Amino acid sequence: MSMLVFYAVPLIGLFLVAAGSVAYLLWAARRRPSRQARWAVVGAGAAVLGYAGAVAYGLAFTDPVQVCGQKTLDNDFPLVRVRVDAFPPDVACYWSDSGTCDSSPG
Predict the structure, then answer these.
(1) How far apart are CA 9 and CA 49, in angstroms?
(2) Which of 9, 36, 40, 86 is the most exposed place for a label (fewest CB within 10 A)?
C-alpha cells in the first residue's frame, strides 16, 4: 500500500495544482483582483494542498493497530477492526465487546 501512496499522493497533488491553476487564471482574468487578493488565494490553495498531502501521508504510513493498542491487559476483548478517516483525521478502534474507542486527537 505504501508504494501506491508514494505515487498516488504526488499525482493527485499535481492534478489538483493543474486544476486550481486553470480556475485561478480564469478568476484572475475575469475579476482582475488586487495583488493582495491574488496572494491570499494562492496561499490558501497551498495551505489546503499541503494539509491534504500531510494527512494522506500521515495516515498511510501510520499503523492504526499500533495506535489502538489493546483494550485490556489480559486481552479479554481483542481488537476486531480499525476504521481510518482522512478528513477529519480520525482512527476508530473496535473490539470484540462491540465497544468503540475514539482515538482522535482532542
Answers:
(1) 10
(2) 36
Q: What is the pLDDT of residues 27-37, one digit of tens each?
A: 999 999 999 99
3-class DSSP assignment, residue 86: coil
- Is residue 62 classed as helix, strand or coil in its secondary structure? coil
The pTM is what? 0.58
Three-class SS of residue 33? coil
Residue type, 53: G
E strand spans, 1-106: 79-85, 90-95, 100-102
| Residue 104: other Cβ atoms inside 10 A | 10
Whether the CB-CB separation of 50 and 6 falls below 8 Å is answered with no
Amino acid occupying residue 12 = I
**pLDDT tens sequence across 49-92:** 888 878 777 776 667 667 776 555 566 667 777 887 766 777 88
Q: What is the grid cell recorded at 15?
A: 492534478
**Residue (of 17, 8, 21) closest to 86 by Cα position:** 8
